[in-house]
Amino acid sequence: MKKLTLVMGAAAAAIAASLALAQAGGPGYGPGPGAGPCATTAGAPGAGCGYGPGMGGGPGMGKGGGHGYGAQLLTPEERTAHWNAMHSFKTIDECNAYLAEHKKLVAERAQEKGLPVPPQRGNMCERMKAHGFFS
User: Fold this and answer.
1) pLDDT value at position 61?
2) Which of 95, 97, 93, 100 is nearest to 83 (CA)?
3) pTM, whole model, 2 decimals?
4) Are 53 and 86 in contact (CB under 8 A)?
5) pLDDT: is 82 or 47 the higher one?
6) Does residue 81 or residue 11 have the better pLDDT?
């Protein structure tokens, strides 16, 4: 009986400590650094002194989890158009033809800016085919 009382007492203390931390805004998910007064001081949504958007939405993440080949050399509008194009193809041949043109654009843009051409990590069309995007 003493063991049960000790276990129940320890559980009650743990719950009380958890509730105290939750009310105090302690570590963990939810409001913490980045929420509250700093989030609105700059007047723009999302601006402030926080850590950023959170899991899966920070810098480097675009539609589908990545920016795509050469994204650092494209405008935001061009990146959106590239994403839309890559998801519009019905065959792998269409995809490969577009990707060859996109690779030329990226190489030209890199040359204009005096930057090295970024390395291409495999063939995105082949990866899309492996994931069932094409029949």
Assistant:
1) 41
2) 95
3) 0.50
4) no
5) 82
6) 81
